[in-house]
Give the backbone structure.
Amino acid sequence: MFEGFDGKRLLAMVPQEVRWMDNLKKAFYESDIAFADGKAADDAFPALCKAVDVAATLHSSLQHSVASWSPPPQKDNKRKFTEFLRSEIPGTDENGDDIDLIDARTQKPVQYDFADIFYAIRCMIHENENLNDAEQPDYHVTLDWSIPEHGDLGYQCDGRLTCNAKAFWWRVRSVVAKFILGTESFMAYERGDTSGTIHSHPAFKSVHPNDGRHTIKTS
């Protein structure tokens, strides 16, 4: 995830990159709040998908020097999104797991790794589709919030995948958290100061966009 990162470059973020970092923290915080307040099925994934979108764009942007900086092209959204997740979660080329499904819209076979699955979720959420498995949506990837968090990541049947929503949320959240903390740690090291950590629940720390670390109590 941090290959080629340099503290001096991070401290020299252009104004747009600073805004992206602020927006990333806001989306991350909104997702945490939704999860902690028992509104995960409605709000946790939309905010987390937004966070990954922004993190992927910022991650791509920071690979280039300030002198030659230009915004990453929007047409590369899928590539940026999946490459960002694959920087921490192995894809097919890195001996990651592949899942064969049947696309509910085209009825054609599709092959997904973890990043592809989450991108499919992200696209449906952007279309305001409800993927809550309890409401039996007509899609080949759904989210089941009733599966225990530490259970299996999901189960497959007849070309469809039912994901363990809590486990997926925590896994992707950990990637975004690592990116935020790692970026801040590089910058802190360059400045000579220190940075905190983001913990797991039941009393976990989020990244509040205004006052830094913010402890969230789950119900």
About this structure: The longest strand covers residues 203-208. The CA atoms of residues 94 and 152 lie 21 Å apart.
